[in-house]
Amino acid sequence: MRIFGGENGNHAIGQASTIGGGAANRARDYSFIGGGGGQQRSDSNSAIGDYSAIVGGLRNVAVGQYSFIGGGGGNITSGTSAVVTGGGGNAAIGSGATVGGGSQDSALADGATVSGGILNNASGQFSAIGGGESNVASAADAFVGGGSTNSASGVGTVISGGHGGGAEGDSAWLAGIRKQCAW
After folding, report:
1. Do residues 64 and 78 touch, judged by C-beta distance below 8 A?
2. CB 70 within 8 A of CB 62
3. pLDDT band at 168; cut points 50, 70, 90
């Protein structure tokens, strides 16, 4: 247990855990918190998963083993080796899931990725969303490049961008067209 930069209500309660600074943070076994947090317990960062790390920010929770949060606020990583680089209100839930940034984005399945944007949801295994707003990649290997309110729901479907597009059939492809559907 190591706490540097003053205690300020920090709790490095695990074996070989480290907190570099900040306030009201909690680190468990083999975990690291660089700083951040706040005077209120509700603003604290919590590195709960073994070998997890939070660099800074506030209200971040790294639950998954080997998970990482770079900063921002209100982010959570619960999958093994899950990553949230920053932003606010993002969640990387699946094993190896990644959210690059943005706001209220979620990578829910194993290997799912959301690079950024707002309110995007990658729930299919190995699905990906490049950015945009309110896009969904719900099938395995589905991809949405960007745009808004697009839904890739077939296995291996691709939507490059646009608005309101839907790709439902397996291996369907839809280029940035408004309110179109590909089966």
Report:
1. yes
2. no
3. confident
